[in-house]
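Inputs:
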Amino acid sequence: MKLAAYIGGLGVLGPGLANWPETAAVLAGRQVYRPAPAVLPTPTILAAAERRRTGPVVKLALGIALQATAQAGEDPATLASVFTSSGGDGQNCHELCHALSLANREVSPTRFANSVHNAPAGYWSIATGAMVESNVLCAFDASFAAGLLEALTQVAVDQVPVLLVAYDSQYPQPMHDKRPLTDAFGVAVVLTPNRRDSSLARIDAALTDLSYDRLTEAALEALRCGCPAARALPLLRLLAERRSGSTILEYLDVSRLEVRIEPCP
Amino acid sequence: MTPLLLKSFTATSCIGQGVTATLEALRQQRSGLAICDFETVDIDTHIGEVPGVDDTRLPHELRQFDCRNNRLAELGLLQDGFYDSVQRSAEHWGRKRIGVFLGTSTAGILQTELAYRERDPLSGALPASFDYGSTHNTFSVADYIRQRCGLQGPAVAVSCACASSAKVFGSARRMIEAGLIDAALVGGVDSLCLTTLYGFHSLQLTSAAPCRPFDVARDGISIGEAAAFALLERVPEENHDAVLLLGIGESSDAYHMSAPHPEGLGARLAMQAALRAAALDPGDIDYINLHGTATPSNDRSESRAVTSVFGPTTPCSSTKGATGHTLGAAGALEAVISAIALRHGLMPGGVHTNDIDPTLTAHYIRVNRPAPLRRVLSNSFGFGGTNCSLIFGRTG
């Protein structure tokens, strides 16, 4: 079976990158990359009560998912989803571990409910009313390729459109020393089994043993290495340049993911 | 979906290490729950602790993975010849042709909880010995099992709260059908930690007594821990006396982060999707292993969902009164219990339930029923409104 799909929409948020058009301009060389702390949008799609409880990864994941579904012109409620993240909400995790290290061990129930790795997926389904299946993955530094592989497999096998949402945010100290992610970064992709009017490109993928590609510009390569979700950048560059080509993405130690892009005219 | 073969399977929980001990405990309707004396935890509750986890050692070359969760994974992996079965499969198919899909909710977060107590008083730094990636990170258990078994195929941790290790069957199924792999090591490992004990306590969801699913006086969960694994392959032509995965159904509640849909709408969608995937009618299911956590709202919404799909006569029970709620490992543990039920013709009666809540209309059984079983459905639901139903069946 061919592992293939059509890309209908993209969402990106990261340091100095507010959306996909800005990111595409940087990756295509039309604009100089100027890193600046990532600005996460308020998730206005959530009711006020829920919005108050959300942390940075929920804002990030919902922000990029909305960008991607809007560009694709898809109703979010109808899309199966794959969420993938290396670590989830680092600040929330720190607060819980800190509270548990104190004598009284008073844990906030909201913090605990938000600590599940699938919190962004849960808020997404609550916000959009999506009752279809949603999977939530982690593969440490391989989380982006693992999510892309899962999403493409689902599109190919089940012939359904799938929303891929890959995101990571930082841990505060003292965890930051042990897991030094540089900033929040996320990328969302709408994948459909068949070509549509809105399709941007066709993507084909296969596992390979060959070594993975890096980016030549130091600041962008630092971003790629500094946040697991940014391992998507070589793929995003192909899409930004709107040209046919292939690139090899970092995945597991002995395994990589080769992706080929063919823009839709 | 195309059915898949459970080539081998194993489970380790507080009721027993391995299938034989688990079957014996189910036959005797023995519970493994005991008053909580875990670590320094000071909560009035019962837990399902697996004996012998602390004494388990990882191979020296994988010592960076050492933590309670990976020790439990190691202990579980060595039961029932499961590790050897994986090795035979790896030699047959090739190491790159076997994927690893493991569910966990908290992985080795206990290691971080302990490290936070040992922060440097001046700098606040965590101890040098603390290894985040190999212990705390959600992927650590999948990484450990993959390296321990010498597998080189795709690998991922699925972390959808308490549905995690049911949903791994879905990821594995898709990758086998896509032809990326020939076999999948699936399962779930979740271990006791302070985050879940104090966290569920803060939500007032833990019971002081051993949990009583579907009881009129049920008042919360008992947290347990488990490691359960299965090796999935395509069904060969010769498959006498085999247990098969027949259907998977997944859905989302789209309702609330920590409370189920009151009518069990998401749960109903998952069960109906599993039946569709298996091309079965509700009447084809002989027994349902419920999610049955023993919180008032969970059991109420699950009972409504079950009754809306199956009516009030299909026998069902929760095995969490025996094992406790093993969270991210519950889906895989109860998948193995379903396989045991099929193989040995046993509907396990729910333990610790004295007076069945008369408002719950599902046909809850408290006493073991020996009966030839052909199809069993297992439910797993989690925080964030994530739902997964699995259907297993028997050939021959």
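The mean pLDDT of chain B is 97. Flag for discussion at group meeting.
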